[in-house]
Amino acid sequence: MSSPSSSARKRARSSNPPTPASEDPLSLSPRPREPSTGELQPMPTSPGTDMQSPAIQDTSLFSSPVARRSVPQSEVDMSSPLIYDTPSRGTPARQRPDLGSVRKAPQVDLNSEPPSGDATVASEQTAGQRLVIWGTDVNVGTCKEKFQRFLQRFIDPSSREDENACLDLNEPLYMQKLDEISVVGDPVLNVNCGHIQTFDADLYRQLICYPQEVIPTFDMAVNELFFDRYPDSVLEHQIQVRPYNALKTRNMRSLNPEDIDQLITISGMVIRTSQLIPEMQEAFFRCQVCAFSTRVEVDRGRIAEPAVCRNCNTTHSMALVHNRSVFSDKQMIKLQESPEDMPAGQTPHTTVVYAHNDLVDKVQPGDRVNITGIYRAAPMRVNPRQSQVKSVYKTHIDAIHFRKTDERRLHGLEEENEQKLFTEERVSMLKELAAKPDVYDRLSSALAPSIYEHEDIKKGILLQLFGGTRKDFSQTGRGNFRAEINILLCGDPGTSKSQLLQYVYNLVPRGQYTSGKGSSAVGLTAYVMKDPETRQLVLQTGALVLSDNGICCIDEFDKMSDSTRSVLHEVMEQQTLSIAKAGIICQLNARTSILAAANPVESQWNPKKTTIENIQLPHTLLSRFDLIFLMLDPQDEAYDRRLAHHLVSLYYQSEDQVEEEYLDMAVLKDYIAYARTYINPRLCEEASQALIEAYVDMRKIGSGRGMVSAYPRQLESLIRLAEAHAKVRFSDKVETIDVEEAKRLHREALKQSATDPRTGFVDISILTTGMSATARKRKEEVAQALKKLIQSKGKMPAMKYQQLFDDLRGQSEAAITKDMFDEALRALTDEDYLTVTGKTVRLL
Amino acid sequence: MPSVQDWINNPLGVVDGAFAQNNSGAEWEKKVVEYFKEKLKVNGAQSWVPSLNDVPLHYLKPNSLVKFRCMIQDMFDPEFFMGVYETVDSSTNSKVLRCGKYKDVTDCGQVDFNSRNAVTSERQTFYCVPIPGESQWVKEISFHQARVVPSTSYTPNRHKRSYEEDDEMDTQAQQENNCQWNDSHRNVESKRLETEAPSQNNSPSRCSSNLDLNFPLPGEQGPACLVKVYEGWDGFKLNDMLEVFGILSVDPALSLMADDKEASSLLDPTESMETVEEQRAHSPPASLVPRIHMLYAQPLKHNNPLLPSAVSEDKGACRFLSGVLSELTSVRSELLTYLTHIFLGDSLAAEYLILHLISSVYARRDVLPLGKFTLNVSGCPHSSPYTDQLYQIIQQLVPSSYQICMSLHNMNNQRMVPRKDYTANRLVSGTLQLASNTSLFLDETQLEQGQLDATGVRNITALGNLISWQKVDYDFNYHQMEFPCNINVLIVSEGRSLLPSDCQVHLRPALSPPNLEEYLKTVQLAQASSQLNKYRVYFTVARSLDYNISDQITKAVEEDFVEMRKDDPQSVSAEDLHRMLIVARLLSLSYGQTSLSRENWIKAKQMEMMRISRTQQQKCVNGNEP
């Protein structure tokens, strides 16, 4: 604790605070500072901590600040802003153990006989604005005023938060929330610190630095305001202000000693929650002789048992009565760093969080949460009997506010709001990148640079990473439209499919990687198991649910059993997962993109077979993939040369070049995250026309043999692809160029440009050389020649295959291979001119 | 200036002295670290410092300077401590500023928590274990050298200390130990035995609660340590090998705390939040898990004691290296002969084994690890001692290694992947948590038919991932975390291994000695220890060489590839080229050449061709594969 303010605080805490000459003596009394480290201070050294004196009467306490923390106090701290001057009208104040100072609020005493402390407070308020709470620069009056002004005036027209969903954005935001409180009766006001910061930076700074003082002031301010406006409303207890989204600290790793006693917000994952711990706040003692009763506050975990009854002066007659003592709820929560925040090669850090009162049981293990709270540190004693102290502090966070980051997944509200923060420079850098005409190519080449070529596949995956626009048609009864793009990679072994999958899995924040062979339907979806400890049924989610809003990579898709694969039907179109198991019936969101890799049926691509025959997956499933890529080995010299060059360079490139690429990956990640969050393109008129045309074309072609024929689903995929492409350009409108690219990719994916529309075979040579026109013409000629030959033979119902082949060869000038002959026959078959059965050819 | 013995025996004196001299700024902290660094730079100074790996803990003087060669097994949460604090002398009421750095417990006197001069600082704790799978010869050599330097000055002291501290220990055993200790001053060999003896004596008597020291490999021994790091802890990674120099802290007060837990929990409810398991894992008794306050740590590239640990810096190392390089080729040929004998006359397999043993992941291209070379030696006789002996031979050559018998029982029961235990809040180690360049020997000949259960499947998957991607996905219950590793995996099997591998060599013995065991023993015995040392140096040096390919050769390789594809596109795929490039790389390095030459490329191609033709023949013989 090196900051001057904290050392000043320490001074305040010492048992007999010296009165600084420079300061008004009044400022001493207002509020005893809560020491952060004084928990183990030797007990009754100061007269102020005389525990046996009943709290309320003992006014001398106020001149002697007492060391205490997170344990209840006996004395009514009249100087607490929480209590004095609160227009509560009978609404009891509630303790805020989260602020570390548990205070009683005996309203009766307050109203009937104002203790002397009140006078000092009152005078402080009137004594002008220079007076501040000891050890801080917080002036209660100003602070209160500022906060009230904030509540009354703050308008946030650009709010996108779900919490403000049904509020009028042009009215003061928090006044509407107060209105809500009066209706609903939930006396908690959540305040976004970001709002305070934009409204009054100084107030924000005070809130962050002195949360322990400022938050009670806020409480007071809000209660004044509330009961002014809604004098008749009945609340369970007074409104408590719960600030959240303090931008001070985001990452558990960056917590350091300077954050002690400050308001922080960190994100992480809950890994363990303790049982509810009833913490005694106040012990109730009754004299067994005269039945005189007294209450004793618990101080630092100890109860100072009264030795003498003050009524009848009997010694050791006081007995603790448990059921009249006061307890509060407390829970320990272990928070672990979220995996995204961690540097590679290190283990995650954990932090202890204490939740109090109604925050208990708000979170479950496994939840991702943002916690706002006050960071604390306390020294540990080695042995109560020794003076030696272990020189280590125990740290924890007193939680003030929880915010689940993945809450939306349960409610299925639109657009995830995981506030990934981009700095100004980053955004402008990304925008600059987006403005470049070749951004699409740049990004696609930054994707998995170690994998050679396959440019179109990378482009497809890139679009998958961006995804389409989420549309909601639930009003018209169709529910959500899928925005996720599914891709199937199919091709020869050794064409680095797995590597691509691995890359994508590493790139996206919420990716899952499974292998078809090793995964069962249960592993993909969810299963119900009995928790060994609690004997409760617990729903364990599988890969598909876990990759909600991410990408699920499934390797060896073809090896997957049919029953497992059938699970995917629902996920891939409806994006939900229904479970009915062991009495648990539910529907989970699984808005995941699927990137699957499969080998052809015969493990090697058979060029003699059509695409459909090679893949051989159920058509219902196949049509759910937006893009089906064939990854074939082109077997071409020029290609080989480039491939070899690429591979060799892989083996001697220096370290810094590798480093450079890594940077690219970070940029790519940010680019995608930014586009996914902020860009929602819509179709423009021209684009929709282009889409319609494209679809009609596809229907026409699709009727051919061995093609994946077009369904309305394909139209939807075209739309998605076009939207994703628009996202790549950071454009809010889908334009014709997007549609063009979507069309091209869609066609390219199935190598349809290389597929003979009549035979349905993929012509691999076309892929590399691109000279299909002449070849096709040649085929045509052979077929015609064959037809002529057959016709010239007159009316023969059947012919020998071999003989016909020989005849044709004899007749033609150019050499005719068997393949060419076969192809010609097939062409004629398609014309319904003849049929081939075994070794005979029959005319029809 | 303090004398030599001072900075080793009483480093805290140096620290306190520096603190007292200029307590104004933070300068003194840097000065202290610099001071110790300077001291350790002096020739041989490092060997004066007693090593925790070697000397039993109770012979070491508390608060003295020690060194510890270890691997970071787990990283605990950072802790805040009193960097500077003020104590009050109750009698005179005078206040003294003290420094809390490098200490676990505050010094005598009442601590004034409210002092405005107090400074809170932050430090990080690592749980360190001795390097898993460290070969016996590494220990022998490194501590043999250490003992040569006379270090008598602190022994009597240690006697006293150990007597006082361990009085609850069996006195007889203690005396025995002491006798041994005295003897061992004259006899180096017995010393080694002795270092193990007390730990065996200790463990049953001392830790009745059966404290799990969390070693990655079962049956490991040696102290585990909590290393407190004061600066630059972000630079360390899990599974890093380190040589830590620091101040030993075994204050019994630390252990007391655990005992008094029940008592204190009644008083302070916050104490009870920590589970017993967590207590035990994070603050184990100091007598079992000592604390080291790190002054200086040397990251180790390798743990071969025959080589200077930092390869680059000083001149001596350079001279040493050039000496090794000059005779690299001759060592290689001797080694090849040796290994050929081991492989019963199969020189091709011996070649590949050399390549395998010098392979190391030198870079990663996005997800692809480059330089790994997993070898599958197939054709090993089923359930014969041959594989065990092969492992022993490899163990003698590499600094750290581990053998996993892939028997069904092992696969189904062993914990391979480290797992986070949230109750104890620590990373429970598994056999795959190994330091880089450890040789993992998978014996598949032990595998029999039967069913793998869920654990078995997970283990096989983990091994597969390790081989293909050189990473282990640690199980964090709610998610998995990927930790890259660099482990040389050697699989011996009868047929083709069920695990993926970069390269499979089918063993083709040229001779069949009647008594295999006898034969291997004689081959082994024929190697003098100086010879073995040469091999050991060879592997470490060859592995760390740089490598590049000139443009000219690049062109040639490209041509070659295109040519091969022309003849038969099916025969050579991109994967084959990958493998050939690795083989060529390792082959060049094995001759000490740092760039690829045409001859080596051709040789690599030939080797590959021979290997492939062998496996194909094997397939024909078996006839059961498509």
Element layout with pairings:
The complex is a heterodimer of chains A (844) and B (626).
Chain A: H1 4-13, H2 107-112, H3 116-126, H4 140-153, H5 173-184, E1 188-192, H6 193-199, H7 201-209, H8 211-229, E2 240-244, E3 263-273, E4 277-287, E5 293-299, E6 302-303, E7 318-320, E8 326-336, E9 350-356, E10 368-381, E11 389-404, H9 407-411, H10 424-435, H11 439-446, H12 455-466, E12 471-473, E13 479-481, E14 487-491, H13 497-507, E15 511-515, H14 521-524, E16 526-530, E17 537-541, H15 543-546, E18 551-555, H16 562-574, E19 576-581, E20 584-589, E21 593-598, H17 611-615, H18 619-622, E22 627-631, H19 637-652, H20 655-678, E23 682-683, H21 685-702, H22 712-728, E24 733-734, H23 736-749, H24 764-769, H25 772-792, E25 798-800, H26 801-811, H27 818-830, E26 834-837, E27 840-843
Helix pairs in contact in A: 4-8, 6-7, 7-8, 11-12, 12-22, 21-22, 21-23, 22-23, 25-27
Chain B: H1 4-9, H2 11-21, H3 27-41, H4 45-48, E1 65-75, E2 79-88, E3 95-99, E4 110-112, E5 119-130, H5 136-148, H6 155-165, H7 171-184, H8 188-206, E6 225-229, E7 241-249, H9 252-259, H10 261-267, H11 276-282, E8 291-299, H12 315-326, H13 328-342, H14 347-358, E9 363-365, E10 368-370, E11 375-378, H15 386-397, E12 401-405, H16 408-413, E13 419-421, E14 426-428, E15 438-443, H17 454-469, E16 471-475, E17 480-484, E18 487-492, E19 503-506, H18 516-525, H19 529-543, H20 551-567, H21 574-590, H22 598-622
Parallel strand pairs in B: 6-8, 11-18, 11-19, 12-15, 15-18
Antiparallel strand pairs in B: 1-5, 1-7, 2-3, 2-4, 2-5, 5-6, 7-8, 9-10, 13-14, 16-17
